[in-house]
Design a protein that fits this description.
The chain is built from 16 helices and no strands. With 525 residues, the chain is mainly α. Among the domains are: 111 residues, no CATH class; 41 residues; 125 residues, no CATH class; 55 residues, no CATH class. The longest helix has 74 residues. It is elongated, with a radius of gyration of 66 Å. It starts with a helix and ends with a helix.
Amino acid sequence: MSSHEVARAIQESLGPYIRPREEASHIRRVLASYLDSCLEDVSATGPLALVEPTKPASSAASRSLHREYIEALNANLKARKDYGASYQENASATRVEGLAVALPKLDHLKEHLATISLQKKQERLQAVEKHLVLLKQKPAASPDFLDPEEIFGDSRPLPDVPRDVVTALTINNAPSATHLKELIDQLEKHVLRTKLLLKREEQLLEQVKSRSSATQGTITDSAKLEALDTARNELIKWIETELGKAGDGGGSEDGEHENHRASGTARLDEQLAGIKEKYTRYLEARKALLQLVSQQATPIIKPRTQDKTVQPTSTSTPNPPANFLSPYLEQLLSVAHEQKGLIAQKSHLNTIIAKQLRENCHALDRLAEESQLIPAHPAPGTTRHKPAAPAFSDALRASETLDASSRVKPWVFAADSAKIATLEVVAEKIEEGQLAIEGSMRTISEIDQLLKPHASGQGEEGGNSEGGGEGDSVEDIWLAESRPSGKSTSAQNIAGKGAGSRSAGDVWDMLDGNLGLLRVDLDPP
């Protein structure tokens, strides 16, 4: 409802009680005259309904009903005054009693709350004490319950863990930053040690050169030969020890991986073949060196002079075999140092590469465990059933033999499978969309077929207007025979107006009925 309607409803409800100003003043005058007649010529000094309770009305000058009213009014005032006094007395008494009773009630409430909290605390402590007693009664509370000597007293001692496994575990568990720092420290130590050795060898070489230059004339050939033999023997021993270490390392490697790594055996065979070739070359060089040392000095024949004087052939003094090796000592020492440096560098590079491969394999394994793509699209070679747990050494060797490429293959296969699955889903959705489009096109064609007769009917109507006129005339003749003559012309006019007023493209044209003619038939003559 609007505000005007609400105001109108309120005015209608208050209409019987609202009077015009003139009518209201007239009613007041009538009532005043009536009251004056009731008071019997005594003017009312004030309204009787507004009597003050402290000033009772005097009834000396009043008579009859007015006097009775004043007496009842005074009695009412007295009763009200007595009631007020008694009410105040009772209110003050109840207020004092309430204050006196409220204080003990508050103290009692506080005591009750404190008692409840102490009871709860006591219950908790009792529960704790009870459970402690129960725990002390159990055998696990005894001090010897977890003593390893008593637990493993009757069991067999565990076998010692291989040193290689312990070192591998410590290397794997060590943080990468600390391990890198240790490697840097070790490299610095190696560099410093190499520099010190180089300086020492340079000093020794200078001392040897000074001694050789100082005592070159005093050293005998036998001493030189003995020194060369000693150097040769030391060099041979060192090369044999290095070859033995390499052979032992290859043999141990072959023994460890002969059942688990076919490619490792081939690699070891190649290394052994290379070592054998080096050893054969060393033997050939050694034989050549010995032959060179054992050779005798050939006499030097001087050419004849121009006067063709026959000079006696003078044989040069045979040089000792040590003279042939003295120019090559420095080169042999440099070659030995280079070989040592190459061996150390090779071992260092192998260690770094193995560590990097191990870290990459661990990272790939961790990602494969956390991945949801690989379990959803497993490789065809993997088995679904979990195999039995292998031995610790076998698992360690298997983890070492697997390279990064074998760990990356499941990721590649899973990515390809996910791509193919996504393409299949997209193709299915496209087919569904095409089917929906075909269904909508079929529906549109059906709607078009429903509307096509109307369109063809309009075309025929425009082309064959004469035939339509003849049909209408025949229909009008039959209608004229069936109804009075006075209404025929009006019906034809109404039908013509209806056909002209209807739009050409309206859907209701398909009905093709003469509703106007039927309406004319229903009209009374």
